[in-house]
Amino acid sequence: MAGKFELQGRHGKSRVRVSRVWRRPAAAGGHVIVEWSVAVSVVSDCLPSYTSSDNSAIVATDSIKNTVYVKGKECTEVVSMEEFAVILGRHFTSLYPQVSEATVTIVERPWERVVVDGKPHSHGFKVGVEKHSTEVIVKKSGSLLINSGIQGYSLLKTTQSGFEGFVTDRYRLLPDTRERIVATEVTAWWRYPFEHVSQLPSKPFCFTQRYQDVKKVLSETFFGPPDVGVYSPSVQNTLYLMAKEVLMRFPDISSIQVRMPNLHFLPVNLGSKENPLVKFADDVYLPTDEPHGTIEATLSRPMSKL
Ligand SMILES: O=c1[nH]c(=O)c2[nH]c(=O)[nH]c2[nH]1
């Protein structure tokens, strides 16, 4: 309590950019580099700093920033960003009595190993597009929440998509179709089931590998087999099948939230009766992301009844 009002506060540092290189020999797979933007936010008992000039309990946000680099230095073995977030969260909640909880968010800049003459390069990287991120919440008790996600995963297919049978009333202009382009930029967040630091898997389980696996399942389900694809009756149905496949394939993912904006490719018809300049024949489109459809869903495993 602070006077007659209830006060809650938290503080931390955002956009702490850190890059870590692990210099493995070429025979061991070559160098590894990560570039992360880290945000740390702690719940800390330092209310007097809000209500008076007493800063004695504040862990300075500058010190929080410095810690990110210290911990980066201390990671002599390759770590996933989920593991790194847990390391940071445990550090703040165990070192400082006044810190009861830490939230660590990391977004990765996706440096990917280049392939030269068909061979993975030992120390050359290019930046990819879609981004891996994580949010980890650690409490002093050791209780844990780990969410990971992907952003900016742009997918499109030129056929095997339609939309028909939806509400017909005076507002409807869109005809039924079984032939259209479907394009989206997938954002997905999924939760791991580890609820305490003691449940964390020791190596071979690798969060980074799981991210790659999820990405693969999402795209394979979206596209279907390379030669024939798979028909999508709606973004809703495709989104559901993508989420379901992730939960079916990975028992260590307990829920997944997927957002798939419908980025429309509008048929182009230009002209007049006298001058039919461009008549649409599933060939020329006007791509637009404004406005776009917004479609999202969360799929979870039913709570186990203990
Ligand atoms: O897959 C779709 N779902 C919709 O809800 C919708 N609405 C719309 O206009 N086009 C589409 N397409």
UniProtKB/TrEMBL annotation:
It catalyses: urate + O2 + H2O = 5-hydroxyisourate + H2O2. GO terms for molecular function: urate oxidase activity. One of its GO terms (cellular component) is peroxisome. Coiled coil: none annotated. O2 binds at residues 61, 262. Pathway: Purine metabolism; urate degradation; (S)-allantoin from urate: step 1/3. Catalyzes the oxidation of uric acid to 5-hydroxyisourate, which is further processed to form (S)-allantoin. This is Uricase.
